Structures are given as C-alpha cells and as structure tokens.
C-alpha cells in the first residue's frame, strides 16, 4: 500500500523522495556482505572507487545498505556477550511476504530470533527480530497489514464535560486514546 501524506504545516518540507540507504559500521565487511546476501537477499553493487576505506555497497528491494569496516568497533562497545534480541531496540525493518517461511529459514541457518505480534482493531502483524553479525537488529514483518492513517485525519469529538472515550471515529482505539491524552495534557499545561 503506497500512500502520500499531505503536507499540513505552514513550513515547507524538504524535497525528500524515499529512503535511499542505511549505513552500518561493521567489524568485517565480508562477514556482513555474506549475511546481507545469504540471509536477506541483497546484491553486492559497485561502490565509488574514490573511497579510501574498506567497505561495500549492497542493494535490493529499492534500498541500499552501505557497510563501512571498522575492526575496532568493539573498542567503543563494552558489551562482550551478544546483546539480547529486544524488539524495542533500534532496528531496520523489512516488509516480507511470508513470516512463517522467514522463521523456518532462520531456524535452518541456526539463527536466534524472537517474535512479536501487534494487533489493532482486528488487524494482526507478525514480526521476527534477529541480529546481523555486528549486533544490528533486523526486523522482518508483514507490516503492510496496518493501514497508514495520519493522526490529523482522525476525528476527535469529546463528549461535553468528559474526556472519556470519544464517539466512534474512523481511527482505532489507540489513536483516540492518544488524542484524549494530548487534550488532557494541553488542559493541564494551560493552568
């Protein structure tokens, strides 16, 4: 599902088109290249020859991954054991077509992963989280199941004298609760 979000502010937004690439520091470019090729299906592409540092560029699915080798990356990280797989940690997320197949393939490769489920108004999203060789979190999901609804399009009509659940709107429960919370916070700030 592709959706354009209308500009609603008075400020002119920057002329962005899309996400171009993600750049990651890695201990070994070739270990990371193998991971992104073998596990995620990226393809190694030509990188500008003017770079005077070891790295690699990969591309697929309309996005690039730029790897920059930094063997001393461990000098900046005091953690010596693998980080826990935490869905609330920073991560890169990729849309996938079959979450069950993802889990089977990760198991076949002996990779550790955790799963999570997001549900909203009868919609279910399955997520699979795992690490690349340098501990960066990767998520594969079927997130297209969740409709993209800008919050400003959600109608918020509190009942007179009450900030309890608003009347039925085009948005889900979470958006209504967020609007109620924002309204309550605004009232608290005004006094």
What is the arithmetic mean of pLDDT?
A: 80
Q: Nearest-angstrom radius of gyration?
A: 21 Å
The helix/strand class is alpha/beta
What is the helix/strand order? EHEEEEHEEEH
Helix percent reads 10-25%
| CATH structural class of the domain at 79-151 | Alpha Beta
* Main sheet summary: 4 strands, mixed
Report the principal-axis shape.
globular
Low-confidence stretches: 159-169
* N- to C-terminal distance: 43 Å
CATH topology of the domain at 79-151: 2,3-Dihydroxybiphenyl 1,2-Dioxygenase, domain 1
What's the total helix number? 3
Keywords:
single chain, four-stranded mixed sheet, 2,3-Dihydroxybiphenyl 1,2-Dioxygenase, domain 1, 25% strand, alpha/beta, globular, 191 residues, VOC domain-containing protein, VOC_core, Glyas_Bleomycin-R_OHBP_Dase, 3 helices
């Amino acid at each position: 599902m592709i959706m354009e979000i209308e500009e609603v502010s008075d400020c002119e937004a920057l002329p962005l088109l899309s996400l171009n690439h993600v750049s990651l520091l890695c201990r070994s470019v070739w270990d990371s290249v193998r991971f992104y090729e073998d596990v995620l299906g990226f393809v190694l592409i030509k990188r500008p020859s003017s770079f005077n540092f070891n790295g690699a560029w990969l591309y697929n699915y309309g996005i690039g991954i730029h790897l920059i080798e930094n063997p001393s990356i461990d000098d900046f990280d005091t953690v010596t054991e693998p980080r826990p797989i935490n869905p609330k940690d920073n991560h890169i997320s990729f849309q996938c077509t079959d979450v069950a197949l993802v889990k089977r393939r990760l198991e076949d490769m002996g990779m550790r992963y955790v799963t999570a489920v997001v549900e909203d108004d009868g919609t279910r999203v399955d997520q699979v989280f795992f690490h690349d060789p340098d501990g960066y979190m990767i998520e594969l999901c079927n997130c297209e199941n969740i409709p993209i609804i800008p919050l400003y399009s959600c109608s918020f009509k509190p009942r007179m004298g009450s900030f309890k659940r608003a009347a039925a709107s085009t948005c889900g429960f979470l958006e209504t609760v967020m609007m109620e919370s924002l309204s309550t916070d605004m009232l608290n700030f005004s006094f």
